[in-house]
Amino acid sequence: MAQHVTAGVDGTAESLAAAHWAAREALRRGAGLRLVHVWTGQPGQVLSVPADTTRRRVAERALRRSVASVRAAHPGLRVEDVLLYDSPVTALLAAAEEAEVLVLGSRGLGRIAGFALGSVSQRVLARSPRPVVLVRAGDTFADEHLPALDGVSPDEIPETPYRDVLLGLDTEHPFDDLLGFAFESARRRGTGLRVIHAIGAAPDHAAQGRLDTADAGEPRAEREHILVAALRPWCEKYPRVPVTETVAEGRAATELVQASARASLLVVGRRTQKARLGSHIGAVTHALLHHARCPVAVVPHA
């Protein structure tokens, strides 16, 4: 079984943020950290052609800087560095297979705009056999925690509580891999799990001449019952994880983006069945990766 967390690094600020998030996750899991830098030759160069020495040296320096930064911040963490000459997608997918979780950085658009996914990240997310976490440039240790009293940074008070973990759940497909990842994430952080199931915009019953509020509330009440039933076995398995269930009448992406501003991690699922035109991450997940205000974990499930 994998005993390490893997982060893809390339010398950019966003990949360094991913490396530090992965380091903290490795410590939470009691695992090691593997930093992988994938590089290729000149554009259009065939991979069998001998590697360009200058580009290799640039890659080596970038990897060394990432490793040094992580080791300085976490001197007790076991860090392994891997330099690969390969297609980035191929290499990262192979690295994901050997890891507990793969962490990638976004090509950040800033803290308001959220994520900007490159083609490599999108293809890795769509095909990875393991959970993938996307981290924005600028995300820090403090962002995972509740604000400390009197403006003191959580870096100075490590026991400052984590923000809740947020889970977007489709009650028609409450897959074990997704629920297990979310509950474990909350348990490791010693924090609560907030679960949101969105049912879309509520119909305007008054405009339709349907004023029976009891009838209007039945679908929501039924969804709440289904949500509680889906979570019950996991609440029993994780009795120390406080769980808050919410059935929201808005659109899933909108509700989850708003809630992500108060979360340490947003967890969503991705179906592993391939579409006719290839694997994809789904419209809701795609929206969340562009607008969420915290790291996003995408968990594959059958």
Q: Can I get a quick summary?
A:
With 302 residues, the chain is of the alpha/beta class.
What does this protein look like?
Helices cover 38% and strands 20% of the residues. It contains eight helices and ten strands. It has helices at residues 13-29, 53-73, 88-97, 119-127, 176-189, 213-237, 252-260, 283-291, and strands spanning 4-8, 32-39, 79-85, 102-105, 132-135, 164-168, 193-198, 243-248, 263-271, 296-301. Strands 3-2-1-4-5-10-9-6-7-8 form a ten-stranded mixed sheet, with helices on both faces. Helix 7 runs parallel beside helix 8 (283-291). Residues 42-50, 108-116 and 202-216 have low confidence and may be disordered.
Oligomer: single chain
CATH class annotation of the largest domain: Alpha Beta
Order of neighbouring strands in the sheet with most strands:
3-2-1-4-5-10-9-6-7-8
Tell me, rounded to a whole number, the average pLDDT.
83
CATH architecture of the largest domain: 3-Layer(aba) Sandwich
Which H/E pattern describes the elements? EHEHEHEHEEHEHEHEHE
Largest sheet: 10 strands, mixed
Number of strands: 10
Query: What proportion of the residues is helical, as a percent range?
Result: 25-40%
Instruction: Give the overall shape.
Output: globular
> What's the number of structural domains?
2
Q: Determine Rg (CA atoms, Å).
A: 21 Å
Query: Helix- and strand-based class?
Result: alpha/beta
- Report the portion of residues in β strands: 15-25%
Poorly predicted segments = 42-50, 108-116, 202-216
Number of helices: 8
The third-level CATH topology of the largest domain is Rossmann fold
C-alpha end-to-end distance: 20 Å
